[in-house]
Amino acid sequence: MAVYTPVSDDELQAFLADYDIGAVTSFAGIAEGVENSNFLVRTTRSTYILTLYEKRVKPAELPFFIGLMDHLAKKGLSCPEPVAARDGVTLRSLNGRPAAVVTFLEGMWHRRIQPVYCRSLGAAMAAMHVAGADFPMTRVNNLSVAGWRPLLEACGMKSNQIYHGLYNALNQELGILERNWPDGLPSGTIHADLFPDNVFFLGDRVSGIIDFYFACTDSLAYDLAICLNAWCFEPDGSFNVTKARQLVAGYQTVRPLSAAEREAMPVLARGSALRFLLTRLFDWLNHPEGAFVKPKDPMEYHQKLRFHQSATGPVAYGL
After folding, report:
1. Structure pTM?
2. How many CA atoms lie within 13 Å of 153's alpha carbon, on the beta-carbon side?
3. How far apart are CA 129 and CA 305, in angstroms?
4. Which residues lie below 8 Å from residue 104, measured CB to CB, with a gap of 6+?
5. How do residues 131-172 score in pLDDT, each as one tens digit?
6. At what angle do helices 166-180 and 259-285 cross, to 10 degrees?
7. What was the pLDDT predicted at 294?
8. How many domains does the chain have?
9. I want to staple 214 with a disulfide (CB 3.0 to 4.6 A). Which of 97, 192, 273, 310 is the partner?
10. Residue that is last in its domain, among 81, 103, 125
């Protein structure tokens, strides 16, 4: 993930002096990502990730994220495990930013998605949902349906700079989703951002899940809908139903979907597409000059949304 707050060698040594993780042998910033400053730290004992949480992450929500990773790791899920300092505290401060050290996961993320990866992801996601079922903390999903209208209004008529008539089209779509958004579905802790770069593989098998900083409490099937958007479309914008079937099949080997969840999937997938379209649109319209990270194209998700609008039912997603 991009480095926004630099850390010198001396600052690192002073910070890690409070930890019992061995002597530092190498230290480097990690360039990928958009949210926080991340550094790869190798020591005489192991390899770790040092994260400095930047302004888009609310400090009051960090105990939820840190606690969730700790809970899931203790349940056997392969995810970054927070490392406590000698005083037992996992969330500390470095260079004016909240900071934490977590374990390093082996593996790589796949840029070209194959159906077998989708099946493994589905099973891993379901295992995460099951492992998180007794996590005691909750966090409202501020980027679910109740949060989309403020995002759209913040973009306003400037949306039409991207595509003529985009604001009116999104306003109409949002009205439909607000009226039809399902409630009463099985809920729990979801990742809410399981894009390919947040899932590590060793070969064809998921070796770890990272970046839990959008995790929240919401419908479990909504996590699956996010992955249908993130994993099952081809570069030309077409939907690959084979990948969708494998994703759903893998999920159901661990946690079978209810009839209500299956019926709700078209609306959930449609809402997921709108959610990422709106956040990308906002970032695109409010991108400061000279920023480190280039904003992602919102129109990718406009094309996906149009597919979901034409879907005839759960069968379109391999259900």
Report:
1. 0.93
2. 6
3. 26
4. 40, 46, 47, 48, 49, 80
5. 999 999 999 999 999 999 999 999 999 999 888 999 999 999
6. 150
7. 75
8. 2
9. 192
10. 103
